[in-house]
Description:
The protein has 314 residues and is mostly helical. It is built from 13 helices and three strands. It has helices at 3-7, 26-53, 60-89, 96-129, 134-137, 140-158, 160-166, 183-187, 195-228, 233-241, 244-266, 272-297, 299-313, and strands at 13-16, 93-95, 175-176. The chain has a three-stranded mixed beta sheet. The longest helix is centred in the middle third of the chain and has 34 residues, at 96-129.
Amino acid sequence: MSASNITSTHPAAFLLVGIPGLEHLHVWISIPFFFAYTLALLGNCTLLFIIWADAALHEPMYLFLAMLAAIDLVLSSTALPKMLAIFWFRDQEINFYACLVQMFFLHSFSIMESAVLLAMAFDRYVAICKPLHYTTVLTRSLIIKIGMAAVARALTLMTPLPFLLRHFHYCRGPVIAHCYCEHMAVVRLACGDTRFNNIYGIAVAMFIVVLDLLFVMLSYIFILQAVLQLASQEARYKAFGTCVSHIGAILSTYTPVVVSSVMHRVAHCAAPHVHILLAIFYLLFPPMVNPIIYGVKTKQIHDYVLSLFQRKKV
């Protein structure tokens, strides 16, 4: 046995089971996941292209949307290719460090997504409650600072986890009962005192979800007050109509999180595959539906797509 194997406290690789209890259905389950991932790639790449190509869309709302699309691309592409490899080719092995990198990217970009949704709520607040100051408040430099702050927050919160996991001794085997490297799924394989990881993981999740959702809700309380003070019903409808896409994005992102959290605490007897399917749904559903929501509900994007088709016909 080599010296490196003697001193190593972690396995060279983990084995990802996929969806425990549904291994015999992996090929069939992969079909909707593949189509959803394809839609996510096409939709978010199309959004990024449209926002880049149309100078009229180089406004704060669309720049935040471009950030959201880029994050959704990374989130879905970090997990889905490996997941499909498990389902199609039974390629279950993942290098230990690759597993930590996948976990880091998944959790970091989830935190970034939450921050961008909060920034988009702030954008709608300024646009509706302070319309005369919109261009002076949401300058290009402020948007860049918000983007950098979103990245910095995610990196600060998630950087400790891979280093902590690297120093655990994994005596419970290399098999992860999941289809991607989720933090708690890896922690369950470790021996020793993992209480800090458990508490830290829950604290970060609660901090992000509760804090960001609280500020989003406050933004919409102020928005609703401003909308109700408008004189005509048409003006109220038009003002609040600009928020519909953002509300849809919030619901598509946070609903799976809340449902999964409730299921973990209420449905203790639920089969493991139920929780894992919910986790996959959370990763795949927002990247798939967000481009559709914004493409249908945002007039400028909708008009640009129609103009592209009309040019092809001509």
